[in-house]
Fold this sequence. Notes:
The chain is mainly alpha-helical. The protein has a single domain (about 5-380), classed as Ammonium transporter fold. Helix content is about 70%, strand content about 0%. The protein is built from 16 helices and 2 strands. It has helices spanning about 5-15, 20-30, 35-65, 85-100, 105, 115-135, 140-145, 155-170, 190-215, 225-250, 255-270, 280-300, 310-330, 335-360, 370-375, 375-380, and strands at about 180, 180-185. A two-stranded antiparallel ribbon has the order 1-2. Helix 9 (about 190-215) packs antiparallel against helix 10 (about 225-250). The radius of gyration is 20 Å and the shape is globular. The mean pLDDT is about 95.
Amino acid sequence: MMSEAQQVLCFALILLVPLAAAGIALMNTGLGRARSAAHTMLASLSMLATAALAYLVCGYALQNYSGGTAFPGLFLVAVKLNASPESLGILLSMLSAGIGAMIPLGAGSDRWRLSACCYSAAVFAGLIFPVFSHWVWNGGWLAEAGFLDTGGASTIHVSGGLAALSIAWLLGPRRGKYVDGVPAALPGHDAVLVILGCVLALVGWLGLNCAGAILYNRLAVGAVVLVALNTLLAASAAALAAALVTRTRYNRPDASLCANGWTGGLVAGSAVAAFASPLAAALIGLIAGALVALSVETLDLRLSLDDPGGAISVHALAGIWGLLAVSFFSAGSWLAQIAGVATLLGFVFPLAYGANWLLARFHRLRVAPEGERTGMDLHELGAGAYPDFVTHHDDLFSR
C-alpha cells in the first residue's frame, strides 16, 4: 500500500510528465524542416490526444487483462478514479502511452500524413503499449521474472523507438535525401527549439521517473531525490559525451547530436534511476551519449535509414542499453533483463511493423510528392508556421 504522502507526491510528479511530451515535440519540430514545423507540432498534439482516447477505449482493459473472455475496464467503466495507486497508474499510463506514440514522429518527419500519424498513435496506445506494459508494470511474466524498469525505458521508449524504426522503413527517405545512394545533409531548421525541448524534457522525465519509482517500485518519498539526481546526471553525461564524440569526428560539437545525446541519456537513465548510484548513472549516460552520436551517423550512412529526429537511436538503442545496464550497476537479473530486450525485439517490433504495414494497406502513410515539395504545412494545413519567411527554396528542384 502507498502512504498518503506517496500518493500526493506521485500525483504532483505525474502533472510534470506532459512537459516530456512538449520537449519531444519541440525537438522533433526543430530537427525537421521549417516548412513542416506547424505540421509537426499539430501532429504531436493530435497523437497525444488520439493515444489518450485509444487508452480510454481499450488500452486500460488490455493492460489490466487477467484472463477469461471479458475485458473489464473498457472505456474505464466501473473503475474508481480517486487517489488510489490504480487511479494514479491509469493517469501515468495514459500519458506514457501518448509519449510513446509520439516518438515515431521524429522518424517520419516531413513526409508522414497527419491522419496516418493519428491512426498509428491509436494502434500504439490501444494495443502495443498496453500489452507490453501488462508484462512489465501490471504483474505480468516479465515482472514476475524480476525485470526492472523505473520510468518506462522499455514500455515507452524502446517500444516507441522500435515503432519509429518500422515507420522509417515503411515511409522511405525524404525527397532528395539520397542521391545516387549518397546521403545529403538536410539539417534541422531551429536549434533553439531543440535545446528548449531538451530542458522541458528534463522536467518531464523527472516527473516520469520519480512517479514510476513510487508507483511501480514502491520507493519511499525520500528516495525520489536519488531518482531525480540520477536522471539529471545521466542526461548531463550523455550530452557531454555526444559533444566529445562530435568534436573528435567533425572538429566541432554538433548541436543536434548533443541534444539527441541528452535525450538518449534521459532514456537510458529511465531504466536505472531508482537502482544505480550517482556515479553509475553518470557512466550509463556517458555510454548512452556516445552510442547515440555514433548510431545516428551509422543509420544514415550505412543503412540508409532517414530518421530526422534521431528517434531510433535516442529511444530504441539508448533504451536497450539502459535496460541492460540495470544488470551491470544494480542487483537486477541478467536473465530477466535479456528476456525483456528479446521480447521487445522479437515481439514488439514485429507487432509494430505488422500493424503499421497493415494500416498502410488501407490508408496511405506518406504524403504525395507535391506535398513534400511545397511542405507539409501548406499541403496539409493550408498555412505555414513562418508565413513571413521563405521556407522551401533550398531543395525546390531536388529529386
